[in-house]
Design brief:
- The protein has twelve helices and 14 strands.
- It is α/β, with parallel strands linked by helices.
- It has two domains: about 60 residues, DNA polymerase, domain 1 (Orthogonal Bundle), CATH 1.10.150; about 300 residues, TIM Barrel, CATH 3.20.20.
- The protein has a ten-stranded mixed sheet, with helices on both faces. Strands 1-2 form a two-stranded parallel ribbon. A two-stranded antiparallel ribbon has the order 7-8.
- Strand 4 and strand 5 form a beta hairpin.
- Helix 1 crosses helix 2, helix 5 packs parallel to helix 6 and helix 7 runs parallel beside helix 9.
- The longest helix is centred in the middle third of the chain and has 19 residues.
- The chain is elongated.
- It starts with a strand and ends in a 16-residue tail after the last helix.
- About 5% of the residues have low confidence.
């Protein structure tokens, strides 16, 4: 049985090579060929012994998921839809900015958390992605962009686990994937530039702080338990007091000295001045500048029954937090014309029949990916 080498972090690849009778330095060479150079043909890995290349041809492969579609936004954002089998698909989004290139990665096909304002949650849950399927999104995007932008230096400087799914509910696959991203023989990303977003699974937040502490973003969305119970069902199990305590524990190990709270602005639901002042009270109950808020304009979809707060309301809400000394930003909406903005990552995916038909068609007709214009992204 052959294995996909994208499923291994460096330690896992070293164990695989040892089983082939090879030393660890061969695993390092192989790891660099895969992740730094994007090579997927063993015969092209010229500094590997011919005997090892022969073994690898018989026992392993390096493969991303098939691309069902690729969409380019007017603002330069790119969204890919990947086939993960059995009629399921996941989406990955690249967001170019002047000083960075951010890739938003999915961890599950669908999501089981079921937040009221998230279109992915309304899709339902199919399965966890494997480590290889998580890593493949970065592997494909990085080397595809280098080829189309005709650049040799790194394009993707930041990774956010904010795509489809709750990363901490796929913990076993997540940790090796994070280690691939951070490894200097892989993508060499800083812990400060890799962010895991969670809806607040307290025990797994504690585990992450010990196993692979990276930047942490917490989907808060409400200042009190009564409201958060209706927006984020997980709050019933892990209420705000427990969640905030877990955030403080995480800070002892985190690469940053703050936690980011994501807050989706919902018209008439969680955007009142009273809600803003309740947030101030909750944050100020703990000394120090230990968190910041990222206010996210809601991207409406029909099944939600919700509307986005007005720009004036969002700014008023932000002003109350900022005036209280809490760093607060308003997220700039990117890629909404291709349904790639925050909370929109379901799109065509939620119509399972249509996606299955498109995947079947894609398998019989080779997709030609659109050539991309030059994107102004600085490497790190």
């Amino acid at each position: 049985m052959t294995v996909n080498l994208l499923d291994f972090d460096l330690d896992g690849l070293a164990v695989f090579c040892e089983r082939l009778g090879e030393k660890r330095f061969r695993a390092v060479q192989l790891f660099r060929w895969i992740h730094q150079r994007g090579v997927n043909q063993f015969d092209d890995m010229t500094d590997l012994a011919k005997s090892l290349r022969e073994k690898l041809r018989n026992l392993a492969f390096i493969r991303s998921m098939p691309v069902v579609s690729q969409h380019l936004s007017a603002d330069g954002t790119i969204k890919w839809l990947f086939d993960v089998g059995d009629g399921n698909a996941v989406e990955t989004v690249f967001i170019p900015e002047e000083d960075r290139g951010t890739l938003c990665i999915s961890s599950q096909a669908g999501c089981a958390v079921g937040c009221r304002f998230c279109s992915t949650g309304h899709q339902g849950f199919s399965r966890n992605l494997t480590t290889g399927e998580i890593v493949a999104q970065l592997w494909f995007a990085e080397h595809f962009l280098r080829q189309h932008l005709q650049r040799e230096e790194r394009i993707i400087s930041n990774v956010v686990m904010m795509g489809m799914g709750e990363p901490l509910q796929n913990y076993t696959a997540l940790i090796p994937a994070l280690r691939v991203m951070l490894d200097d023989h892989g993508y060499g990303l800083s812990r400060r530039r890799v962010t895991v977003s969670t809806s607040g699974i307290v025990p797994m937040m504690d585990r992450l702080s010990q196993d692979c502490p990276v930047a942490l973003a917490v989907s808060l969305h409400a200042p009190n338990d009564a409201l958060r119970d209706t927006l984020v069902p997980l709050n019933v199990k892990y209420p705000l007091a427990q969640l905030v305590a877990a955030c403080h524990r995480y800070l002892a190990f985190a690469p940053r000295d703050f936690i980011t709270f994501e807050y989706c602005m919902l018209d008439g639901v969680n955007d009142s001045e009273q809600c803003a002042r309740q947030l101030v009270e909750r944050v100020k109950a703990h000394p120090g500048a230990w968190c910041k808020f990222n206010l996210i304009p809601f991207n409406p979809f029909p099944a939600s029954g919700l509307l986005c707060s007005s720009p004036d309301r969002v700014q008023s809400f932000a002003r109350i937090l900022n005036d209280a000394g809490i760093t607060t930003t308003v997220r700039k909406t990117r890629g909404d014309d291709i349904d790639a903005a925050c909370g929109q990552l379901a799109g065509d995916v939620k119509d399972r029949t249509r996606v299955a038909d498109r995947i079947a068609k894609q398998r019989s007709i080779r997709i030609k990916l659109i050539p991309l214009p030059t994107v102004n992204v600085s490497g790190v």
